[in-house]
């Protein structure tokens, strides 16, 4: 199993995260579409891992995808770990925080911008700061 800069016991994660954050970040859950607080959020700032505070995305990379989850066309270099995900009979690329291993969402090659990527992110896995 990979070692991360930030490693905690499951008890510590449960104590520090909300129930929804724990379900998504640590148990690879997914929030219901169109329910996350950052889905239609377009302020200038930065998005961080809700588990450890690692900076993941700049607001300039966010776009309206109409998929039901916050979408970005690129992550900050070195902030994301990519892992093949074959759950639910699909082949996808899971995105994890490179600092703590928290499940952020998935990345797809159907983005509308020049990167061609759509980082489909759970709102519960990120925090926003406009400073």
Automatic annotation (TrEMBL):
SUPFAM superfamilies per record: Mss4-like
An example of a GO molecular function for this protein is: peptide-methionine (R)-S-oxide reductase activity
Could you tell me the EC number(s) of this protein?
Answer: 1.8.4.12
- What UniProt keywords apply to this chain's record, in alphabetical order? Oxidoreductase
Any Pfam family the entry gives: SelR
The MsrB domain is annotated at 10-131
* UniProt catalytic activity: L-methionyl-[protein] + [thioredoxin]-disulfide + H2O = L-methionyl-(R)-S-oxide-[protein] + [thioredoxin]-dithiol
**What's the superkingdom here?**
Bacteria
Protein name, entry field: peptide-methionine (R)-S-oxide reductase
